[in-house]
Structure formats: structure tokens, C-alpha cells
TrEMBL record:
This is ATP-dependent DNA helicase RecG. It comes from the Bacteria. InterPro entries: ATP-dep_DNA_helicase_RecG (IPR004609), DEAD/DEAH_box_helicase_dom (IPR011545), Helicase_ATP-bd (IPR014001), Helicase_C-like (IPR001650), NA-bd_OB-fold (IPR012340), P-loop_NTPase (IPR027417), RecG/Mfd (IPR047112), RecG_dom3_C (IPR045562). It comes from Lysobacter silvisoli. It is an enzyme of class 5 (isomerase).
Length: 705
């Protein structure tokens, strides 16, 4: 494929993927479902991580937690059953060590492959098992005896999965797209002067490096995500997001919104509450009230630590909309959380004569039709739900306030989709749009907030309701586990409830669910006759809800759970939280989990169980948890502790959706991003537009937002 130059390359970048050999309508459709429609989209489909298959590690030298490739012969095969079928294959090599491969789902043909003596090459991350190291669902290949089976000569990129397209095909397609990468000048959008100053490679070079790491590449840097090629891409990606947020903000401010001024209903709610608002709640409500009174749309983020009482502030804001004869919507990221909001709002609002409707994925058929009708007629004054609120077919009569809880779980686009419900579709420049209120319990340091929320005004509820005693936090080694059973008994004897959180963050949902299942069984036995419940991510939503509700209603004493309980769950009577493998969680997540207790009057405690030996970093994290309860302090500490290479944390930054950038790891790029962003918007709006389109997509949408 010849390279193209100049103007032609713009077209090339936008060339549809159907121009690649092997991409028929079916494949194209699957790619499109992932937002991949042009060559450029595939260039920017960046590896999530790398696998190093360039060498073989003797089994004896394998380390827990460190991914590696190794080879050996099948020594024994065992098919068993523990809650579900399991296949275990022992592999040994010349280093005379053995490792166990464990499979939970497998086909008969797979079992047959593992003859004793067969040669197997595997890649995976070992962890301590019952009989030494084991790997759950490794990638593996059974080799012929004669098979020389060459080793890879460079790092293998691992791409985010695309449903319906296998990893090998996906890699091939990305390779084909890369073969058509235009030359440097045609591709580059960043000013040369900036790249030089920061010693960053061109976009072309950066893309080729991350997709096809050269043999002499700095492997450790690539794996840690700090290679100059990755930094270069991160800079451009952060810039694209920043630009899109800024432009959106500018466009938003051009819209009109209903000026909502009547406070009588909000006042009635406040007076009916069983508690007085904190000073911080009052202040933030005042900020919201002032925004709502203006004829331009509010765009406000409320940051408030877990338990700071954001919901009631949101409810009061909703009352301003309802008083004006309009509607308010509250959207939460999980059904559990949405349902909790529903219960709170019903308890608070129905006595005031306000009608609250419920719309979630599981509301179907006639019930759904009837809710939709109430929403469309305005009969439903406040509508609570999940993503289902944004679906097609949901039309409001007059939505004036859109509230999004735990915003870090949603993207900007989803927020806009809810906003658009106010205008009955995508909105033109002079449209009337709803006010937007966004709430988050994941405080992030100021610099990061500026980048992540460049389109929002920020309020902070930086005070907890009175009477909460800080959660007593201790870190205990695993060996003390048996003592905890007594501790749970004591708490429950006082009529309190407890959580036991099982985490295995390296593994799949499935393995985590299994661990929770067996912990549940053990604890049920040891704690009898206490009532123990279980929730995990692989249960049906209905069963999860039922168990959560039983716990909330005091019908269960102990809840064994995976991190599905992380966000927002409110059971004030729970006073003891035990977190297993706490050393493997990031600070923000630990803080969120701990926030589930200490919500009532009783003194609460949190036990962080860890498996020794602790790394320095893990020790510091646990220490921070013992010392402070302030989410903002914890966020700063998190940023400080998490240097480059600390990969565990990437899941918890919460600011999901980046392909390569990591707001914590790449925080030092943010000042550049901001300065450059303002300059481009002022001097080169076309370039700004192209950067946004390239990374964020939906360019047309932003143009009209
Ligand atoms: P979060 O900010 O984490 O979403 P919630 O809104 O769920 O917190 O509030 C946590 C708990 O505190 C709820 O039970 C709520 O009713 C209660 N609460 C809220 N504000 C106050 C207050 N000012 N005084 C006492 N309790 C409050
Ligand atoms: Mg909340």
C-alpha cells in the first residue's frame, strides 16, 4: 500500500474499515459496535497491556503475581467438582518444579489434549494455590514433540476485546490498518515546538512503537505505561478530552434553561427531615439554588465524601424543579444504588404529595409502558433510575433538572444523553436544556479535578453529619482470621450487622464469585445460628437486590460480598467491615468500602486483613487508612503513593474511558494540556476540532452541543 501525502491523508484516516481485506459487513458491524469505523479508529485502538513471550521462564523461577511464559510436560490431570466442574493440570519441567493450571470451564476436547507427558507452553500470572503456584485459565498451547515452536521476537500487544472478533483476528486487522499509516506530516497535529520541548516522538512513531514494540524497546517502560511513545499519546488524548470539555462548556453556556426560583417545596422537605442539614449541605444547596435561578443551564459537580449526605441535597434541588411544575430525574450507575435512592426519595417526597417514578432495565412490559406514559405526561414529577433513563423511547414532558449520581461511572456522553431528554433529542444552539447536577464520592485532587471536570463548576460537601464516630481501623495479618469470627459474633450480639468483603482483584469475576461463595459457606458454618447472606457480581440482579434488601431490613446479620457493594450502599446499622486482601486494593477503593460503615450512631470498626509479606507501598496504604478518614487527604496520598509502574491502581482512578492516559500517572502533563488547549481553541480551532474528533469521536455532536 503506497503512502499518501497531504490532503489525501485526511480521507485516508477516515477511510471505512470495510476497505481492509477480510472486513465484510458482519465484521464491520462488530467493530462499529465498539465505535471502530475508520482506519484511524484502529490506529488508536491501543494495547491495554503487553505480554512478554520472548523467553521461557523455568517453573522454579516463576513468581506469584508476575506474568511469564513457561513450558513443561503434563504430569497429572484431575477432573473434579467443587461447586462446579474444575480441571486441574499439573505441569512440570527440567527445573523439577510443578505448577497447576486450573480451569473452571472447559470442553472434553481440551481435557483430551492434556495427555500425561504432553508438552505445553503457557503464559499467565501464577498465584499461590493449595499445592504451590497455580494459574487460573492461562493461555496455553499443546506442542508437538518435534515442534520447535519459535519464541516471539518482540512484546505482544494485548488489545481491549471486541465482542465477536477473536484476539488474533483483531491483531491482524490492526496490523493491516497500521500498514496504511500515512507519513509523519500528514498525521501530526501537535505543534513541533511542543514535542521538541518535551522530547516526545511524532504520532506516527509513537503509534508504531506501541503497536509493534521494536526489539530494543524499553520493555519495563512500555509495560508500566511510561514509555515516551505512550506519554506522547497520553498527552494528545488528554488534550482531546480537555478540548472537548471546554468546547462543550462554551456551547452549553450558550443554551437557555428554565429559571427555577420557587423554594417553598424544598423548604417543606427540609423541615420534614429527621435531621438538620450540615453547614456544608446548606452552603452547597445555596450554590445550586443560585444556579437554578438563572436562565442558563447549571453544570455543577458536587464532590462529597462517602456519607456526607449528597442525596438529600439533590432531593431539595429536585423540589425546586417540581415546585416550578417541571420534572427532575436522578440517574445512578447500578440498580442497587438507584433503588436505594428511590426508597429514600419516596420516603421523603411522597408525604409532600410528590410523585416519584422508577425506571430500570428490569422494569418491562406493561409496567414499563405505564411508567413511560407517566414520564411523558408529567404525572411522574421525579424519575429515579439507571441507564434505562437514557434509552430511546423515554420522553419527559418537561425535564428541568438532570441529576447524575456517582458520576465517575458515567461518561460525558451519557450525561449529555440524559440532558437531551429535556429537549426531546439532540439540541440546537437556542434550545432550552435541563440544569445538570453531578455527584461524586470519589474526591480527586484539585489539579486532576480541573482536567477531569473542565466543563463543570465544583462544590464540595466537606463536612460529615454530626454524631458519626470515626471508623476504628486496624490492619491484621491473615493468620488472625479465626479471631474475627468471635468479633462478628460480638457485634451481632449487640444487634449490629457486619460486612465481609472478598476481593481478588487480579482474577475474573467468576473466580472472585467462587471465593465469595466458599467464604460464605465457611462463615455460615462457623457463625451458626447467625444469618449470613451473599452478594457477588455473577448473581442475578434480582437475587442481589433481594439479599441486599434483607440485609438492609435487618434480616441478615452478616453480608459476605465482593466489591459490588462498593458504591453508595447505605445500611446505618452495620458497624463492622472486614476487607480481605486489603493490601491489594487501592486507597480510593478501600476508602469507598470503609465508607459503608460508620453511617449510624454506633462506634464502627474496619478490619483490613492482609496476607504478609507486605510491600512498602501496601504498608503505606494501609497505614494511611488507619490514620485518616478524610477522602480528600486520602486522594492526595493516593496520588503521591502511586508512582509510575504502580499498575494496581488503574482500575480505581474512576475516570474511565481513556485509551492510554492515566490521570494519576500522567498528572504532570496536565498543565501542558491546559495551556496548549487554550492556545489551540484561540488560534487553531480547526486543529482543535481534529484532535477532538480523532480521540473522542462524536465530533459532529460536539459541534452542535
Ligand atoms: P452520600 O453522600 O455518601 O451519598 P447519603 O446521601 O447516602 O450520603 O447520606 C448518608 C446518610 O446520612 C443517609 O442515611 C442520610 O439520610 C444521612 N444524612 C444526610 N444528611 C444528614 C444530616 N445532615 N444529619 C444526619 N444525617 C444525615
Ligand atoms: Mg450517595
Amino acid at each position: 500500500m503506497p503512502k499518501r501525502h497531504g490532503g489525501a491523508s485526511v480521507d485516508l484516516q477516515l477511510q471505512p474499515l470495510s476497505s481492509l481485506p477480510g472486513v465484510g459487513p458482519r465484521v464491520a458491524e462488530k467493530l462499529a459496535a465498539r465505535g471502530l469505523t475508520t482506519l484511524q479508529d484502529l490506529w488508536l485502538q491501543l494495547p491495554r497491556q503487553y505480554e512478554d513471550r520472548t523467553s521461557l521462564t523455568p517453573i522454579r523461577a516463576l513468581q506469584p503475581g508476575v506474568a511469564a511464559q513457561f513450558e513443561g510436560r503434563v504430569e497429572a490431570v484431575e477432573r473434579g467438582f467443587r461447586y462446579r466442574p474444575v480441571l486441574r493440570v499439573a505441569i512440570g519441567d527440567d527445573s523439577r518444579s510443578t505448577l497447576v493450571l486450573r480451569f473452571f470451564h472447559f470442553r472434553a476436547a481440551q481435557v483430551a489434549q492434556f495427555r500425561v507427558g504432553a508438552r505445553v507452553r503457557c503464559y499467565g500470572t501464577p498465584k499461590p494455590g493449595q499445592l504451590g503456584l497455580e494459574i487460573v485459565h492461562p493461555s496455553y498451547r499443546v506442542l508437538d514433540d518435534e515442534d520447535a515452536a519459535a519464541l516471539g521476537d518482540r512484546l505482544d500487544p494485548v488489545y481491549p476485546a471486541v465482542e465477536g472478533i477473536g484476539p488474533v483476528s483483531l491483531r491482524r486487522l490492526i496490523g493491516l490498518a497500521l500498514d496504511r499509516l500515512p507519513d509523519e506530516d500528514a498525521l501530526e497535529l501537535l505543534p513541533a515546538e511542543l514535542r521538541q520541548r518535551l522530547s516526545l516522538p511524532s504520532l506516527r512513531e509513537a503509534l508504531l512503537t506501541v503497536h509493534r514494540p521494536p526489539q530494543d524497546a524499553d520493555v519495563a517502560a512500555l509495560i508500566a505505561g511510561v514509555h515516551p511513545a505512550q506519554r506522547r499519546l497520553a498527552l494528545e488524548e488528554l488534550l482531546a478530552h480537555h478540548l472537548s470539555l471546554r468546547r462543550q462548556r462554551i456551547a452549553q453556556q450558550a443554551h437557555r434553561a428554565p429559571a427555577l426560583k420557587g423554594l417553598a417545596l424544598a423548604e417543606r422537605l427540609r423541615k420534614a427531615l429527621p435531621f438538620a442539614l450540615t453547614g456544608a449541605q446548606k452552603r452547597v444547596f445555596d450554590e445550586i439554588r443560585a444556579d437554578l435561578a438563572k436562565p442558563s443551564p447549571m453544570l455543577r459537580l458536587v464532590q462529597g465524601d462517602v456519607g456526607s449526605g449528597k442525596t438529600v441535597v439533590a432531593a431539595m434541588a429536585a423540589m425546586i424543579a417540581v415546585h416550578a411544575g417541571k420534572q427532575a430525574a436522578l440517574m445512578a450507575p447500578t440498580e442497587l444504588l438507584a433503588e436505594q435512592h428511590l426508597n429514600n426519595l419516596r420516603a421523603w417526597l411522597e408525604p409532600l404529595g410528590v410523585r416519584v417514578a422508577w425506571l430500570a432495565g428490569k422494569v418491562t412490559g406493561k409496567a414499563r409502558a405505564s411508567v413511560l406514559q407517566d414520564v411523558a405526561s408529567g404525572q411522574a414529577q421525579v424519575v429515579v433510575g439507571t441507564h434505562a433513563l437514557m434509552q430511546e423511547g423515554v420522553a419527559f414532558r418537561d425535564l428541568a433538572l438532570a441529576i447524575v449520581d456517582e458520576q465517575h461511572r458515567f461518561g460525558v456522553h451519557q450525561r449529555l444523553a440524559l440532558r437531551d431528554k429535556g429537549a426531546g433529542g439532540a439540541v440546537g444552539a437556542d434550545a432550552i436544556v435541563p440544569h445538570q447536577l453531578v455527584m461524586t464520592a470519589t474526591p480527586i485532587p484539585r489539579t486532576l479535578a480541573m482536567a477531569a471536570y473542565a466543563d463543570l463548576d465544583v462544590s464540595a460537601i466537606d463536612e460529615l453529619p454530626p454524631g458519626r464516630t470515626p471508623v476504628q481501623t486496624v490492619a491484621l495479618s491473615d493468620e488472625r482470621r479465626p479471631d474475627l469470627v468471635q468479633r462478628i459474633r460480638n457485634a451481632c450480639a449487640e444487634g449490629r450487622q457486619a460486612y465481609w468483603v472478598c476481593t481478588l482483584i487480579d482474577d475474573s469475576d467468576e473466580v472472585e464469585a467462587q471465593a465469595a461463595q466458599s467464604t460464605f459457606e465457611d462463615l455460615s458454618r462457623q457463625l451458626a445460628p447467625l444469618r449470613v447472606g451473599l452478594v457477588h457480581g455473577r448473581m442475578k440482579a434480582k437475587d442481589k437486590q433481594a439479599t441486599m434488601r434483607a440485609f438492609k431490613d435487618g434480616e441478615l446479620d452478616l453480608l459476605v460480598a465482593t466489591t459490588v457493594i462498593e458504591v453508595g450502599v447505605d445500611v446505618p446499622n452495620a458497624s463492622l467491615m472486614i476487607i480481605e486482601n486489603a493490601e491489594r486494593l487501592g486507597l480510593a477503593q478501600l476508602h469507598q468500602l470503609r465508607g459503608r460503615v460508620g453511617r449510624g450512631q454506633a462506634a464502627s470498626s474496619c478490619v483490613l486483613l492482609y496476607r504478609p509479606p507486605l510491600s512498602t507501598l501496601a504498608r503505606q496504604r494501609l497505614e494511611t487508612m488507619r490514620q485518616t478518614h478524610d477522602g480528600f487527604v486520602i486522594a492526595e496520598k493516593d496520588l503521591e503513593l502511586r508512582g509510575p509502574g504502580e499498575l494496581l491502581g488503574t482500575r480505581q482512578t474512576g475516570l474511565a474511558g481513556f485509551r492510554v492516559a492515566d490521570l494519576v500517572r500522567d498528572a504532570d502533563l496536565l498543565p501542558q494540556v491546559q495551556a496548549l488547549g487554550e492556545r489551540l481553541l484561540a488560534q487553531a480551532p480547526d486543529t482543535a476540532q481534529r484532535i477532538v474528533a480523532r480521540w473522542v469521536g462524536g465530533a459532529a455532536r460536539y459541534a452542535s452541543a
